Amino acid sequence: MIELTPVSLALGAACIATYTDLKKGRIIPNWLTLPLIPIGVVFYIIWGAYQRDLLLVISGAVGSAVAFGVGYALWLTGGWAGGDVKLFTAFGALVPMFSSYRISAPYSSNYPLFPITILFDSVIVMLPIIIAYAVACRAQGRGAFYEQVKISKLKEGMIPAEVIYAKDGKIGRWSSFLGLGKPSWDRAYTNPNRAAGLTRYQVGELKRLMKRGKLEGSMKIKKGMPYAPALCLGLFIAVLYGDLYWRLITLVAGVSAQLLILSFVRVSCLGSAVTVLRR
Q1: Are residues 215 and 234 in the same domain?
Q2: Residues 58 and 196 grouped into a single domain
Q3: pLDDT tens digits, residue range 31-79?
Q4: What is the pTM assigned to this prediction?
Q5: Angle between helix 4-23 and helix 36-51 axes, rounded to 10 deg
Q6: 188-to-151, 194, 224, 262 alpha-carbon distances in Å
Q7: Beta strand pairing status for 159-160 and 187-188?
């Protein structure tokens, strides 16, 4: 029962983070996430030492490292904000290993990789919602994940989807999802990989370029989507139910096995019928 202590902390933090993320515009406070990381690491050190289990001792540190590595990679793509990374890292520290009451992934119950289960569950839950949202936006003639905003309407915190740069005194634009064909520049005015978005200084520089006639029109801005609610759902599902990914795998494997057996039976019956007709 002692492992329910960090799990309870994680579930409580998830609910608070969901509220602040939705209510305050993608803000997950540091006072909520940062203290939970050392709390989780120290908890498993003490508990592991008491149980004389080396894996348990290091599980909090390993779980937080795994969660931070995955979260940081998603931050680099611009999909997550810094608060999402810190919240996910806190989950990794508090719940590095957990055996759900119903379905556990083989790796999550024996190794400090439970954050992967949380992430998979959150993605599986959110994917239908994101697809429906994208289809609805497409039907209305709007972009699902990007929008065009006039330079004069730019505000601090908006996340650019393109690089506006200066090269040999000329202003250029570049955007590529895979980072292909990246040009060289002397100075970059925007950085799509900065999850915090445009700074006040950058907004001022872009507007000054527009006034001087060097920059016209609008620029592509990413539509930020709060991910804390998805992580919250993923955590609750992972703890109370288990790994949805492995449930889908087992279902697919079961259906495939049934289809193979049915096909074998049909072929056998057909072969028997042909044999009887020949006689």
Answers
A1: no
A2: no
A3: 999 999 999 999 999 999 999 999 999 999 999 999 999 998 887 776 7
A4: 0.73
A5: 170
A6: 16, 12, 22, 62
A7: unpaired
